[in-house]
Write a structure and sequence with these properties.
EC 2.1.2.2, binds glycinamide ribonucleotide, 33% helix, transferase, eight-stranded mixed beta sheet, globular, Rossmann fold, Phosphoribosylglycinamide formyltransferase, 6 helices, alpha/beta
Length: 210
């Protein structure tokens, strides 16, 4: 059984999707813990209600990113994870932290990377007149929102969309590709070639919705 530690900062809908898919589909995995950097993250309640251990490492208490990341790593490692899953975890991580979990930490980012790294992805996609938007699941490296892409999903940007409407459409796609990506990891179906990742059996690593 692979052990997953999921990091959240807020409502945790991606974490919820992963917890549910793991149970419903009988993955060879268990969610060992859900950890938040915010004590008031809504997703902590869902995790606790499902009997999943929770922890808070409040970034506001630490004087530096290094100090926060060191404590976060200590708490994560206490749960002996095979995979660390960043699910709406809104912290910039130090290179030491990303190196520690190299090739065993995933992130979901609400854009079609490499477009729109960072924040406000949906506003920027609309502003640029993009006709497609989407979401990317990728391994985490020291460079923000880079790292080998596991899956991407594309959705249309429709006339009249505001950031709220587009983010809701993208979120549906997130809940599709994040569980799928984590499942592939725990099933050891992901193969590295250099700095790229593909599926062992050539399964499609993209989804087109709408
Ligand atoms: C998701 O849309 C996720 O893609 C995004 O935060 C949201 C978290 O929602 N992540 C990032 O922007 C990371 N840079 P959730 O808490 O309901 O899963």
């Amino acid at each position: 059984m692979k052990r997953l530690v999921i990091l959240i900062s807020g409502r945790g809908s991606n974490m919820e999707a992963i917890v549910k898919a793991c149970a419903a589909e009988g993955w060879p995995a268990e969610v060992a813990a859900v950890i938040s950097n915010r004590p008031d993250a809504g997703g902590l309640q869902f995790a606790a209600a499902h009997g999943i251990p929770t922890a808070v490492v409040d970034h506001k208490v630490y004087a530096s990113r290094e100090a926060f990341d060191a404590e976060l790593a200590r708490v994560i490692d206490g749960f002996s994870p095979d995979l660390v899953v960043l699910a709406g975890f809104m912290r910039i991580l130090t290179p030491g932290f990303t190196a520690r979990y190299a090739r065993r930490m995933l992130n979901i980012h609400p854009s079609l990377l490499p477009a729109f790294t960072g924040l406000h992805t949906h506003e920027r996609a609309i502003e640029m007149g993009c006709k497609l938007a989407g979401v990317t699941v990728h391994f985490v490296t020291a460079e923000l929102d880079h790292g080998a892409i596991v899956m991407q999903a594309a959705v249309p940007v429709l006339p009249g969309d505001d950031a709220k409407a587009l983010s809701a459409r993208v979120l549906t796609a997130e809940h599709c590709i994040y569980p799928q990506s984590v499942r592939w990891f725990v099933e050891e179906a992901l193969v590295w070639s250099g700095e790229r990742v593909h599926h062992r059996d050539g399964a499609a690593q993209h989804v087109l919705l709408g």
